[in-house]
Write a structure and sequence with these properties.
Elements (H helix, E strand, L loop, with lengths): L8 H32 L5 H25 L2 H23 L11
Helix pairs in contact: 1-2, 1-3
Length: about 110
Amino acid sequence: MGASVHIDEQELKRGLTGLVVAVVELIKDTLRAQALRRMEGGSLTADEIERLGRALMGLDAAMESIKVETGTAEAVASVRKGLDDAISKMVGGLLEPAMSPRGSLP
């Protein structure tokens, strides 16, 4: 008979929640960067900037609360590091194709 596999359901839930929270944080970071570009470009009114700032701060607080309530801060940090590293490599490959593994192929 084969060896049995033990799956810790709580750890699995925590890991999945950490992944979801990390992806939402990436989306939030993208929204924040887009808002800054629009603000610097002058396409937002002062009222829109204020509302956007409040919404992003509220989202930050909600995400931190979720991490505390679910005990997923470490899982989120780990997933974010992996995703951030992958994105950096991908962007670096796009900006400098000769440096990427595919860019060095004939």
